[in-house]
Amino acid sequence: MKKIIFSSTTLILLVVGTIMSLLLISSYQKSNGYWYKEVHYAIKVERHVPRNVHEEMNLYYDITLENGTVMKSLRHVSVGDTIYFDMYKVGK
User: Fold this and answer.
1) Could you tell me the CA-to-CA distances from 91 to 28, 35, 85 in Å, in that order?
2) What CA–CA distance (Å, rounded) separates 32 from 28?
3) Exposure of 57 in the CB half-sphere (CA atoms within 13 A)
4) Cross-sheet strand order for the sheet of 70-73
5) Range 34-89 classified under CATH 3.40.1000
6) Residue 27 DSSP one-character state
């Protein structure tokens, strides 16, 4: 008999959790925001010159994009590689 009570309790919790998740997802969809993708190209890639011991242990690359933005990457990227950014715009 205890096994049946455990199973019904689990089922009720699963249904309540599913309903709560659907309500939460629907509230996010009502916002004025939207997703879009930005595409940029690497025009310059340099190994970062470490300035202290911590940076020597975590080497990374400085990547310059065609729009002038400089970003850091742990992976080596070649010049001309495409970098995709998933952006979420909030508001109008």
Assistant:
1) 13, 12, 19
2) 9
3) 3
4) 70-73, 61-65, 34-47, 82-89
5) no
6) H
| 92 residues of the chain, pLDDT tens digit each | 455 555 778 888 888 999 988 887 776 655 566 788 889 999 999 998 888 888 788 889 999 999 999 999 888 889 999 988 888 777 65
Residues β-bridged to residue 57:
none
**6, amino acid identity:** F
Structure-token match 């470490």, residue found:
50
Amino acid at 66: E
- Burial label for 77, CB within 10 Å (0-12, 13-18, 19+), is middle
Tell me how far apart the alpha carbons of residues 71 and 65 are, in angstroms, rounded to a whole number: 8
